[in-house]
Design a protein that fits this description.
Length: 216
């Protein structure tokens, strides 16, 4: 399907009821609104110069619920601030880092971001709200660059999958890639969900691995 200069493929959306209260809380995290994301979506603008893709794979309703739980988990502010303090200490409070982190603190909303860099918010956590924002950001960039310029291409992708073990527990893996202008980054999150739907462990949250952040 072609709409407004974009090619849309493989669109499917599951509407999931709001999360019920969990029987077990995960220290350092709160449950936010995961939003509604497509299961499978590819958009291409300006002959492929800008693309965004989302692929969320769940085999059944239990896996889909585990995925939504994983996408809804937000780190509490103190967890992010502890990582900020560590980074500032390592950078010896030099350059634009203190200012950039101060601006990140001032931004309102449930926080999944680390700081803004090269026209995008670097993720601290891969979450549903983060994915929704990156999708809209890439669409906005495509609209801003209809003709080839020095910033003539952009790409965003989100891939999420769920693995169920023999005990009925789930491991949710979520990965994002962003590429626009002078910066490219990758970030991944893995969330363990027990058979009752409670999150019990999160891996990967924190500043993006600078080995995946590239400048051109």
């Amino acid at each position: 399907m072609r709409r407004g200069g974009a090619v849309l493929l493989l669109i499917a959306i599951h509407v999931v009821c709001p999360l019920t209260a969990m029987g077990q809380s995960l220290p350092g995290y709160v449950v936010g609104d995961p939003g509604v994301l497509p299961d499978s979506l590819v958009e291409s603008y300006h002959s492929g110069r800008f693309t965004l893709a989302v692929f969320r794979t769940a085999a059944d309703s239990a896996e889909l619920r585990a995925l939504v739980v994983a996408e809804s988990l937000l780190p509490v502010e103190s967890v992010i601030e502890a990582a900020v303090d560590s980074t500032l200490s390592e950078m010896r409070h030099t350059g634009l880092w203190p200012r950039n982190f101060a601006l990140a603190r001032e931004r309102e909303g449930p926080r999944w971001w680390w700081l803004e860099w090269e026209h995008a918010w670097l993720p601290f956590s891969v979450t549903g709200p983060a994915i929704a924002e990156y999708m809209e950001k890439m669409r906005g960039l495509a609209a801003s660059y209809p003709h080839e310029t020095v910033n003539d291409s952009g790409r965003f992708s989100y891939v999420a999958s769920v693995m169920t073990n023999e005990n009925g527990a789930h491991t949710v893996t979520m990965s994002v890639t962003w590429d626009f202008g002078a910066m490219r980054f990758e970030h991944q999150r893995e969330v363990e969900i027990d058979r009752d739907g409670n999150p019990i462990a999160v891996r990967g949250d924190g500043p993006p691995d600078w080995a995946t952040v590239h400048y051109r």
